[in-house]
Design brief:
The protein has six helices and 62 strands. The protein is mainly beta. The chain is globular and about 115 Å long. The longest helix is centred in the N-terminal third of the chain and has 20 residues. β34 and β35 form a beta hairpin. It has a 24-stranded antiparallel barrel. Strands 9-10-3-2-1-12-11 form a seven-stranded mixed sheet. Strands 53, 54, 57, 59, 61 and 62 form a six-stranded mixed sheet that branches. Among the domains are: 136 residues, no CATH class; 120 residues, Sandwich (Immunoglobulin-like); 98 residues, Immunoglobulins (Immunoglobulin-like).
Amino acid sequence: MKKSSSNEATLTFRTLITILRCSIFSKVFLLSLSFFTLPFYGLQAQSASLVKNTENSFDQIPVLVIVPGYENFYVDAVYTQDKMLCVNIEDLFKTLKISCNVTDKGNSMVGFIENERHSYSVDYSTKQIKSGTKTIYPKKRLIKVMGTLYLESSFFAEAFGIKLTFSYRTLSMILKSDFELPVLKFIRIGKMRSNMSGIRNEIVPDTVISRDYHLLRFGTLDWLASSTQTANTRSFNQFGLAIGTEFLSGELDMSVNFYDQQKFNTNQLNYLWRWIDNENMIVKQAQIGKLSSQTIASIYTPVIGAVIRNSPTTVRKATGDYTLSDVTEPNWTVELYINNVMVDYTTADASGLYRFKVPIVYGYTTLKLKFYGPVGEERTEERTLNVPYAVMPVNEFEYGLTGGIVQDSSYSRLGKAEFNYGVSRLLTIGGGLEYLSSISNTPFIPFATLTMQPFNKLTINAEYAHGVKTQALLNYYFLKDVLFEIDYTKYVDGQHATTVNALEERKMKLSFPLKYKKVTGFAKFDYTQLVYKTMNYNQGEMMFSTYYQQISANSSTQLYWTDPASVFASSNLSMSYRLKKGYTIRPTTQYIINTNKLLSYELTVEKYIPKGNFSITYKRNIQNDDYTVNLNLTYNLNFAKASLSSSYSGGQLCMSETAQGGLTLGGGNNYIHKSSNPAMSKGGLALYPFLDLNQNGIFDKNEHFVKLNSIRISGANAIFSEKDSIVRIPDLNAFCNYRVEFDNNDLNNIAWRFKKNRYQVLIDPNQFKRIDIPVISVGEVNGTIYLSADSLTKGIGRILLKLYKKNSKEAIAEVLSESDGYLYYLGLKPGEYIARIDAEQLKVLGLESLPVQIPFKISQSAEGDIVCDINFIIKPLTSGI
């Protein structure tokens, strides 16, 4: 009840302020009223004296902020006697989720806008704001009240690209930005991730732009340099260079690494040519170069060869799911991609554990994982995983052919032919033949596979490889999200195809989610047994992972034994707590249960800084009576990602420095996109918005650019150049479709329209793909419809006017007259038209129109033509009804 009363009082007070401001006595009343109500807003009676370097009195008021696409909210503001509105910077930025750290006892503020490359700082002592490469001196427009910094609202546009339009009458302001606000970005990405974008199409595009094929086009370059120094030893240096091109209509990636303490060998050179055409019926994928293929035999070195397949790279959802779990850095965000389309995301817990419920899709599938740092710095890496299931639609056939040379000591020859066929909705069969010359006794391995889905919660997979193994995998979801897995493999005694020495592998897993009030998490129980001729090796694990607000914790217990009487047991406990101002604390302990002793403990403190982060780790090994101290600094520049680290252990100091970056060429006007992330095997878009005067869809010489400040594209960020009007979108996945959307309301002229608003674009590899975006200028017509009856003539409403192209019988537009007869329509392309009142309506009303029709012409104009005086008079029929 107290909270409700407080809210009502606050609302009443805000309404009262708004009303009183319209009164001639408002200023005197507000000054008196503020004396009694200052404690209600947490101010002191003498707060006006705390505004330094200004003699103006002021009122501290709540202002309603309206952000298109987001819920309205209130922000703290100060209104001065000079009619200047100053907004609480920290309050506004934290609501918008813009990076903001207050330092120097409230005298300064640092962070970044949009991304880490655009940093800013606000210094009250020197009265200056640094934003990117600009330095702004707001002088008296930057004030400090009660230890909080306020900036005059109009300066937000110049300093941060945030336009605030304030209305004194309603005590509200509309907020628009030149970039995508983080709070809106989180909403967009959240919707994209939760909707599992890419598995289903949501919006039909206006136009589809397919691939452009080139014989040769150079586009991307990645580089890396690192050095490691250890006391009393020679330093170790590494240099890497990678080039991405389009060659013979396919993607060609080449990379080389040099190590100053090693002789150069072919393993340091990588190359792969990849061609994809999902519309081709016979071959949809082809690869030539160093391959990473899925084989029955154990191969740990690269294969130089070729692969062709008729399976598409698109995602086609089947029924069923399976669980994928692994470990990365603590608190990192992990995104799951199926055939280069993002389908889900999660956050690793305090120990770095993450898990996915992966949807089973039709056909040959590749899984890829991307990892992002915990505070938005976008440190990324990628991993490619094998898929345990092959499910096909009914009567659909897919094949794959692989051949090459293994880069082992004997240069073994490898060949594999495989197929999958959908027998029914419940059953998929497959098989093939694998050949590896290094297996002396049985180089040929025939194999067969079977996948059954009796219902969507149960998936059974079986594989038989002659002379090697027999394997069965059962995946069953019961209750709601409780998963039970059984994985059994029996190896042929004496087989040489794999490196597994055990005769059998037996695995069981049970996992389920946890939830209690606001605490969420999951539990997992694993058991593995390896059966040998003389013994059985057993391993068990029990793990619990929980989350509560800013705290995450992970507890795992491992058991190892060959004899039940001698079980070795250990336990790990990890926690993570995110503090304010970018700090994260992570303690970790390892405990030996058998001896009832603490083996080691570790403490990491991580601090986010603009464009990077800093961490310090102390680890104590009690058993060995030693310790290790690690210091790490990562910093993102505009063109590279740099890191420095040092480690001290056992009286020895080790230092390491690394820098890496990527370049993408061909973005128009000699533009080179510099990034701290790899650019090879990516693509981009260069959008050319132009005013299409002759409306032929071609960017002619006499036509000019149209400036854009906003577009919509899923899974990417657009770069709006200050030097030209080309919109560039880098870091897109090659051979994937992206949807680009434009809104007519974003154009600077009300008479302009995008010729097409929704584009579906297939990305070309290792290059910027140019797309001309025509904007057309439309005309408007206006006039009045009058009713003449009983010697009176006046405007009449709700009369339907139809607009026709000349010599056409189909109306292209309709408009109803307003209550006073006024007509207005905007959106006519240049050409000749006829305006005519709807004949059916006139017949029903017993009226006739004078004139019957009015011809008019919309002329070609950059600003849009206007045709006035489209006036009609309607009156009762002279001959009656």
